[in-house]
């Protein structure tokens, strides 16, 4: 069995690393499975891509399509053109896509038009917010997928309501949590820790990259001021995504307690998250990672495709509502944050379940 694995952007790398390890383990046990790793180049900055391959022991891709940036249409079209050439030259039995980035949808479409079955890892997630490009990617990918691997039972219910036969849906857990668990004893302290004399629990970590939060300078400044005012004496460490950096360059001085850093390698960033008093984010993955780690998380979005992080975990949705944000910050500062739990099957063995299921089905 030949599987082509797609990785395109930073969130993908944490999800494919354990899948590759599980395939290699199956090969060592004499099982008939091989993979070809295709990096679309959707994230091409070394800080967003290259260092992750090294840290997570992901082998060099067999090919990098080097698509780079562009509008959603330009990037998706470039991925499709280049991946079609790649797939014709190197046919396979399955194309495995993860998550919800443009590479996910684009490669799924190409595979299906070449009559190759698609596997979607992290299928069935829904925010039901069509303003989010990722929601479009999720819906289109799931509409043409053949095998669905889900992180929660709720994701499977979304798929069933969309008419997907139950036998195609497999609840296996979360490969991003596989990667987190595998690297907890390898996390390393970033330079910013000593630079600003940080200590565990005395700072917050923040990430912002969604267009609705960062593309308009006046809105981003208002958001940062609001966060700063509610932070009290705590410093806020802010590794800045390239998209956010572009808008920040239009602003004047930021509040003194917001400390800007470049994007950090995975092992350093997760050290910051694990030891933070709380995380402030609009990212999907950080909602999951903080839930596993039991770190309070304030999500600056009106909805989430990962409701288990709110229902079960340590996450709270605030959107851009000052009252909701004030209540969340008050709960944080007073020590009254809710007690979260780890969702079912977030146990570090998801990738093995995926490959075991695939081998049995084939």
Would you mind describing this structure in some detail?
The protein is of the alpha/beta class. It contains 16 helices and 13 strands. The chain has helices spanning 10-28, 50-55, 72-89, 102-113, 133-144, 153-161, 175-183, 191-195, 211-214, 217-230, 242-248, 266-275, 284-293, 308-311, 322-334, 350-361; strands at 2-7, 34-39, 63-64, 94-98, 117-121, 147-150, 169-171, 203-207, 235-239, 258-261, 278-281, 297-299, 315-317. Helix 11 (242-248) links the parallel strand 9 and strand 10 (258-261). The chain starts with a strand and ends with a helix.
Strand content: 15-25%
What radius of gyration results from the CA coordinates? 20 Å
Gap between N and C termini: 8 Å
Question: Reading side by side through the largest sheet, how are the strands ordered?
Answer: 3-2-1-4-5-6-7
Structural class: alpha/beta
The number of domains is 2
């Amino acid at each position: 069995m030949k599987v082509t694995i797609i990785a395109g952007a930073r969130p993908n790398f944490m999800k494919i690393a354990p899948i590759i390890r599980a395939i290699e383990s199956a090969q060592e046990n004499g099982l008939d499975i091989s993979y070809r790793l295709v990096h679309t180049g959707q994230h091409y900055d070394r800080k967003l891509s290259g260092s992750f391959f090294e840290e997570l022991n992901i082998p060099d891709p067999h090919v990098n399509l080097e698509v780079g940036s562009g509008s959603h249409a330009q990037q998706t079209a470039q991925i499709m053109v280049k991946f079609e050439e790649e797939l014709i030259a190197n046919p396979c039995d399955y194309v495995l896509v993860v998550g919800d980035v443009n590479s996910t949808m684009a490669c799924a479409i190409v595979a299906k038009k070449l009559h190759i079955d698609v596997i979607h890892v992290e299928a069935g997630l829904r925010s039901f917010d069509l303003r989010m490009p990722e929601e479009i990617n999720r819906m289109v990918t799931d509409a043409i997928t053949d095998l669905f691997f889900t992180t929660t039972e709720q994701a499977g219910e979304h798929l069933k309501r969309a008419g997907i036969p139950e036998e195609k849906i497999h609840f296996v857990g979360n490969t991003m949590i596989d990667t987190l668990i595998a690297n907890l004893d390898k996390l390393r302290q970033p330079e910013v820790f000593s630079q600003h004399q940080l200590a565990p629990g005395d700072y917050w970590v923040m990430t912002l990259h969604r267009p609705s939060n960062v593309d308009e300078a006046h809105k981003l400044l208002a958001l940062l001021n609001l966060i700063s005012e509610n932070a009290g004496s705590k410093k806020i460490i802010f590794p800045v995504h390239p998209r956010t950096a572009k808008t920040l360059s239009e602003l004047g001085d930021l509040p003194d307690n917001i400390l800007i850093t470049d994007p950090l390698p995975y092992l350093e960033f997760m050290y910051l998250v694990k030891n933070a008093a709380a995380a402030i984010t609009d990212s999907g993955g950080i909602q999951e990672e903080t839930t596993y780690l039991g770190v309070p998380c304030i999500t600056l979005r009106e909805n989430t495709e990962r409701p288990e992080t709110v229902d079960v975990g340590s996450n709270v949705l605030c959107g851009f509502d000052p009252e909701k944000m004030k209540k969340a910050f008050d709960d944080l500062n007073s020590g009254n944050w809710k007690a979260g739990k780890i969702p079912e099957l977030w146990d570090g063995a998801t990738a093995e379940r995926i490959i075991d299921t695939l081998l049995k089905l084939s």
